[in-house]
Specification:
Layout: E1 2-13, E2 16-27, E3 31-35, H1 42-49, E4 57-62, E5 65-66, H2 72-79, E6 82-85, H3 99-109, H4 115-128, H5 145-157, E7 163-167, H6 175-192, E8 195-200, H7 203-206, E9 212-217, E10 220-226, H8 227-232, H9 237-244, H10 251-256, E11 297-300, E12 303-305
Helix pairs in contact: 3-4, 3-5, 4-5, 5-6
């Protein structure tokens, strides 16, 4: 069942095309990972879906309801079903509030629980994310980065959402802690049939959590496929370059693997190159790539890409 539909979503800040004609669908209990270099529009896409930013054009449909048409009161009701986990676990938590207040605030705002019922729910949520209920009276600065992220996850789960935007949720954490948080997200997804939009620049992390993967470059999705298909046979040269940078634990395989080094820096979103936006850095580029704009189209079953040379 479709939970979320994103149709031709655009967000322009003056001449800067932060998100430019992005479309995808997400089913209940599914994880779509949005990957790409910093500044490609991943976080902006997540915030547009949650209506934290208003789109320049396009439509976000959640459970059959177009969110852009809702007034504040109706949108607030839907916000219980849509939550976010932020990138920086410490800065996303109010330093003046205890853990109990941080997790309990959405319970009160949405009229879910107060008083003793709220305290009980906070204790349950802390245990759910692997923290002791005794931590409820402490403040964010008393915790490690991984513990703070668990508190952020508990806050997101407090209102029983159906959909969560996880915006680089492990990028600020040590590698060993990253694995713990990823496993926690997978566990709670299975337990509550949650859908995730998982935003990341790390394809190594994405591989372990994704059902589908969409690769973004300069505000556009350039390739989208089932996770297993994309990692097995990437079609777009940008995706191939990103995958070639993922560390391989086996030294013999690492030595024999082709390493693709992209030339130059990512262009400014305010001055996007003509033709294919990726042609200025592409190792496969031909003359026509600077003149023709590739269409984003189906190449194989459930595998889409925008490249003139595929």
């Amino acid at each position: 069942m479709k939970l979320l539909e994103v149709k031709n979503l655009k967000k322009y800040f003056g001449a800067i095309k932060a998100v430019d004609d992005v479309s995808f669908e997400l089913s209940a209990g599914e994880t779509l990972s949005l990957v790409g270099e910093s500044g490609c529009g991943k976080t902006t896409t997540g915030r547009l879906i949650l209506q934290l930013l208003k789109p320049t054009a396009g439509e976000v449909i959640f459970e059959g309801t177009s969110l852009g048409s809702l007034n504040g009161k109706r949108m607030r009701k839907i916000r219980k079903s849509m939550q976010i986990i932020f990138q920086d676990p410490l800065s996303s938590l109010n330093p003046c509030m205890t853990v109990s207040d941080i997790i309990g605030e959405p319970l009160e705002l949405h009229g879910i629980a107060r008083g003793k019922a709220k305290e009980k729910r906070v204790s349950e949520l802390l245990q759910m994310v692997g923290l002791s209920p005794f931590f409820a009276s402490r403040y964010p600065h008393e915790f490690s980065g991984g513990q703070c992220q668990r508190i952020g996850i508990a806050r997101a789960l407090a209102v029983n959402p159906k959909f969560i935007v996880a915006d680089e949720p492990v990028s600020a954490l040590d590698v060993s802690v990253q694995a713990q948080v990823i496993n926690l997200l997978k566990d709670i997804q299975q337990r509550f049939s949650l859908s995730f939009l998982f935003i990341s620049h790390d394809l190594g992390v994405v591989k372990h959590i994704s059902d589908k993967v969409a690769v973004m470059y300069l505000g556009k999705i350039v390739e989208m496929a089932q996770g297993s298909d994309l990692f097995k046979e990437p079609l777009h040269p940008y995706t191939r370059a990103l995958l070639s940078a993922v560390p391989v634990p086996d030294p013999s395989k690492a030595r024999s693997r082709e390493r693709i080094i992209l030339k130059g820096d990512i262009p400014s979103p305010a001055h996007i190159p003509s033709g294919c936006p990726f042609h200025t850095r592409c190792f496969m580029a031909e003359e026509r790539c600077s003149q023709e704009v590739p269409k984003f189209e189906k190449i194989e079953k459930d595998h889409f890409a925008s490249c003139l040379l595929i």
